[in-house]
Amino acid sequence: MTNNINSSETISNHSWVKANTKAKGFIFVIAMWLVSRLLIIVAIQILTPLHNTSPTHPDWEPPNPLDFLPSFVPKPGWELFSHWDGKWYKRIATVGYDYANDGQQHSVAFFPIFPLLIRFVMMLGLPFDVAGTLVNNLAFLGAMLILYQWAQERHGISAARWVTAVLAWCPLSIYGTVIYTEGVYLLITTAALRAFDNRQYAWAAFWGALASATRATGITLLPTFLLTAWRERRPPIAYVAGLATGLGLLLFSIYCGIRFADPLAFVHVQKAWTQTPWSDILRDAVTLGRDGVTKVVMVFGGGYLLWRLRSSLSNVAVAFGFCSLAMIIASKATFSVHRYAYGIVSLPLALGLLFSRHPRWGYAIVGWFAILLYYYASGFARWDWVA
Q1: Which residues lie below 8 Å from residue 220, measured CB to CB, with a gap of 6+?
Q2: DSSP state string for 262-286
Q3: pLDDT in tens, 101-137
Q4: Three-class SS of residue 153?
Q5: Is residue 18 part of a domain?
Q6: Which domain holds residue 342?
Q7: What backbone torsions phi and psi does residue 343 show, to the nearest 5 degrees?
Q8: Does the pLDDT at position 16 exceed 70?
Q9: What beta strand segments (E) does the chain contain?
Q10: For the chain, how many structural domains are there in total?
């Protein structure tokens, strides 16, 4: 009888410790999300309007970004979160897609899941700028929570905290707050990767299909899952889940075929966006240009980091990282290649794992990240190109 009581108490204590650890993890993630987002909000809504009282780009030459006015002066308001691509998502969410094979920019270049989510929230009575900001920020929080759980399962609490800190404080995490797809894409791909890693194939297929309808790079989950299934000798259902990830892209292609008589309209329209050759990016990096250095470090430095830590990371995380990097390099979409690299969850996962082994470097670099995050946020509010 005494043994049964002791056994019950042990189980109860174990459950309490597990629940307490989980609660502390959630609190840590929410704190990282909240403090980093507050820094961005203060930069965009308070300090930038305070220090910029005259037109930010009075001599801007055409072609201007969508809905940009040369007389723009930043003033506190939700509109400051919707610059650059946010204006395209506003057009999609409010009036739908447009396309013509005329060499001009059209909204069909942007995939549908993010504007569909915004449109759904707008049906609750919220204006676009509010709905878009809420969707991206809440999705980014969800991505951080799932990533923390996945990292803790694989690498322990210390690594999970560092991974979360990297994702939250990286300067490019501004795109988890303004009206861009980063928050939603990180949420969906992280959920898909964790599900596949845990052999939850129905969920992996579901999240994977959403990923390929959120951003073109979402299709890299297909080779990721197939390669991982082959390497780990998984059952046939794993291959089915991998193939199912292409459904989102396939449905968007069918829509473009029906609506615009061009199933690859989202590909053909890309030629309207001018891209910088890799040779120019490398030359800029050699001369220590900020844009060139950032792109080279994010893409090639990220690839090197994945290779160094390949034995510590899960096979699915490594495969996703390399497949995604290969796609963004091959696509020649270099203008925002560093932002696309940030959206590859394998990279903050690897960097966070590295910092957990070298915390002194981690504290210094994350502190530097926080400074850059403020400047990136301020620049975005002024219509400066960030990434």
Answers
A1: 320, 323, 324, 327
A2: -TTHHHHGGGGS----HHHHHHHHH
A3: 999 999 999 999 999 999 999 999 999 999 999 999 9
A4: helix
A5: no
A6: 40-57+75-381
A7: -75, -5
A8: no
A9: none
A10: 1
Q: Give, as one character, the DSSP assignment of residue 47.
A: I
| Alpha-carbon span 230 to 239, nearest angstrom | 8
Cβ atoms within 10 Å of 355's Cβ, excluding its own = 23
Query: pLDDT tens digits for 21-33?
Result: 788 999 999 999 9
The answer to whether residues 211 and 245 touch, using CB atoms and an 8 Å cutoff, is yes
Residue-wise pLDDT for 195-228, tens only, equals 999 999 999 999 999 999 999 999 999 999 999 9
- DSSP labels for 111-180? -SHHHHHHHHHHTTT--HHHHHHHHHHHHHHHHHHHHHHHHHHHH-HHHHHHHHHHHHHSGGGGGGTSSS
CA–chain centroid gap for 142, Å, is 12
Averaged over 293-311, what is the pLDDT?
A: 97
> 3-state DSSP helix/strand/coil percent for the chain, to nearest 5?
75, 0, 25
67 within domain boundaries: no
Question: Cα(366)–Cα(370) distance, rounded to whole angstroms?
Answer: 6
How far is CA 24 from its chain centroid? 25
Residues in the chain: 387
Distance from C-alpha of 12 to C-alpha of 19, rounded to nearest angstrom: 11
Give domain status of residue 214, yes or no: yes
